[in-house]
């Protein structure tokens, strides 16, 4: 049995408490200094939290950890600035930069840890060029870090599904070998056969008992049409709670009445949403989505990959971007943005309990901030990060 006492921390900015951790799980939370004398195990390690703000570990609900050039020499942006152009550029250039690789995935996961992310749902490219090698690399990278970052994998057809014969078979094999979801990509504009792509994906998902996570960049009516197809198939297949739309830019662009109807259909079907809150996108109807039960997850998307030179792995920065895009100002709303990046991210990595509560995996982040809104707007360094009961960041420095 391993035992750790995190003393004098302020969960969500509240009163100081001591957090007792046993075998990687939060066992007890008590007001600071009230733990009964002699109740500590003889070998219990004590970490002084110095009265810092404590938040649950961040959950990155949409990442691509398999294809970063983080830590390598600078890579200049190239290729055509369209979805198809980015796909073609990546396919032409990825081997030059060793993408995918264990080292690349490890570098990204280490940056996640540095910034307090202790769980992620990551898309990993599956295509005829790399096969399932990227998935194996990501799993090895997670293992090298002792699974400090718990990783769920979405087998992702970055180059399309139907237009590349053999990709469906790879997706099915990935699902059979443990991927928790399979992905899709712009069924209308990439495969030019939205019914065909979606029917094929839902057939695999039903047969293998996995989820579906579909990248949808298409705008306006074309995007909305595909939402309708996804809603219809989710209901027919009984996959409520197992289907997610990533990006989904069209939702915020619809006329108010149609948007409201769409949101409630999504909620009734049990479909969730992940966003990276890009600055040039239309705001999501997040209040309606919250009321309708459409879960929202935040993610970093790619981290310095062949799609974009941006990104540093800090999900708190993404939460701040979400807050700014949606005009959040009150303490309640700013705290909600932080909750999206932490507690509310639990469903995206299949955790029933993710928070500063007994029984949860001990994923705790300490920051020098007054409260959650203060942490959001300043995004200070992570002073201490505990992942699965192990100290992985101390005084802002990685320990793994």
From TrEMBL:
Residues annotated as domain Amidohydrolase: 108-393
GO MF annotation list: hydrolase activity, acting on carbon-nitrogen (but not peptide) bonds, in cyclic amidines
CDD domains from the UniProt entry: Bact_CD
Official protein name in the record: Cytosine deaminase
InterPro entries named in the record: Amidohydro_3, Metal-dep_hydrolase_composite, Metal_Hydrolase, Metallo-hydrolase_Enzymes
Name of one Pfam family that matches: Amidohydro_3
Source organism of the structure: Kribbella kalugense
Taxonomy of the source species: Bacteria, Bacillati, Actinomycetota, Actinomycetes, Propionibacteriales
């Amino acid at each position: 049995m391993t035992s750790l006492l995190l003393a004098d921390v302020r969960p969500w900015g509240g009163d100081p408490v001591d957090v007792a951790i046993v075998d990687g799980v939060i066992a007890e939370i008590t007001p600071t200094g009230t733990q009964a004398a002699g109740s500590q195990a003889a070998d219990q390690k004590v970490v002084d939290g110095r009265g810092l703000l404590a938040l649950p570990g961040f959950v990155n609900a949409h990442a691509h950890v398999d294809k970063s050039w983080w830590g390598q020499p600078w890579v200049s942006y190239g290729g055509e600035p369209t979805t198809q152009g980015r796909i073609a550029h990546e396919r032409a250039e990825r081997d030059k930069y060793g993408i995918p690789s264990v080292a690349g995935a490890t570098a990204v996961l280490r940056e996640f840890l540095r910034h307090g992310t202790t769980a992620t749902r990551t898309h990993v490219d599956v295509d005829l060029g790399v096969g399932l090698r990227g998935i194996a690399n990501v799993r090895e990278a997670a293992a090298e870090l002792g699974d400090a970052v718990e990783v769920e994998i979405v087998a992702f057809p970055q180059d399309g599904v139907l237009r590349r014969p053999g990709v469906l078979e790879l997706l099915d094999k990935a699902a059979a070998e443990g991927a928790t979801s399979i992905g899709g990509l712009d069924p209308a504009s990439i495969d030019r056969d939205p019914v065909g792509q979606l029917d094929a994906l839902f057939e695999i998902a039903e047969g293998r008992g996995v989820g579906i996570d579909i990248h949808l960049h298409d705008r306006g009516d074309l995007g909305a049409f595909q939402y309708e197809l996804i809603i219809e198939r989710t209901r027919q297949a009984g996959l409520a709670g197992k289907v997610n739309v990533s990006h989904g830019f069209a939702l915020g662009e619809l006329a108010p009445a149609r948007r409201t109807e769409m949101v409630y259909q999504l909620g009734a079907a049990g479909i969730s949403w992940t966003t990276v809150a890009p600055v040039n996108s239309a705001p999501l109807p997040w209040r309606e989505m919250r009321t309708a039960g459409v879960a929202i997850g935040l993610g970093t998307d790619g981290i310095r990959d062949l799609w974009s030179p941006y990104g540093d792995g800090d999900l708190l920065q993404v939460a701040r971007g979400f807050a700014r895009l949606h005009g959040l100002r009150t303490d309640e709303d700013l705290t909600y943005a932080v909750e999206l990046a932490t507690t509310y991210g639990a469903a995206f990595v299949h955790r029933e309990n993710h928070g500063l509560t007994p029984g949860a995996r001990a994923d705790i982040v300490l920051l020098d901030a007054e409260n959650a809104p203060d942490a959001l707007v300043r995004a200070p360094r992570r002073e201490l990060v505990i992942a699965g009961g192990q100290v992985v960041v101390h005084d802002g420095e990685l320990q793994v």
